Amino acid sequence: MVQLKRSFRSYMNIRLEKVARTAKEAADKVYRREFGLDIQHLRILTIVVETPGQPVNWVVQESNLDRTLVSRLITNLAKRGLIERILSKEDARQFLLQATPAGDKLAEQADIIGDTMNEDMLKVLTEQELQILDRCLAKLAEWKPRVEHLDENARPDD
């Protein structure tokens, strides 16, 4: 195992968060300028475009965002005429989401910009590094924390 200097900056979650924050801030700037929407709005819109007819709960889970935030984003997107809520035929208590033609068009334009930004970020890696990173991220995405099995020596003294 790679030994890193003992510092909060050495924790993998901190390092991944820093990369994600840098990418998000750059994307937010571009998306706000081009579309008047931030990356979170576009994440929800893209999910709805790619998987129309899903309930709000599904979109919340897929987006990895807070339920209250997703509800607010959906309301904003609906007010802008980019998505619409449709009452479920199977469950009248549930709304299903679908993009409007304007939402489809905006998502398509945002995807072009997103692809360009993604390519820009990844061009610092070689093809081999990119393949390794992809495999590593796939493994980490499947990881389930097992904190209940901490060794007694790893616990702080009282």
Automatic annotation (TrEMBL):
<dbReference type="InterPro" id="IPR036388">
    <property type="entry name" value="WH-like_DNA-bd_sf"/>
</dbReference>
<dbReference type="GO" id="GO:0003677">
    <property type="term" value="F:DNA binding"/>
</dbReference>
<keyword id="KW-0238">DNA-binding</keyword>
<protein>
    <submittedName>
        <fullName>MarR family transcriptional regulator</fullName>
    </submittedName>
</protein>
<dbReference type="Pfam" id="PF12802">
    <property type="entry name" value="MarR_2"/>
</dbReference>
<dbReference type="InterPro" id="IPR000835">
    <property type="entry name" value="HTH_MarR-typ"/>
</dbReference>
<dbReference type="InterPro" id="IPR036390">
    <property type="entry name" value="WH_DNA-bd_sf"/>
</dbReference>
<keyword id="KW-0804">Transcription</keyword>
<keyword id="KW-0805">Transcription regulation</keyword>
<feature type="domain" description="HTH marR-type">
    <location>
        <begin position="1"/>
        <end position="142"/>
    </location>
</feature>
<dbReference type="GO" id="GO:0003700">
    <property type="term" value="F:DNA-binding transcription factor activity"/>
</dbReference>
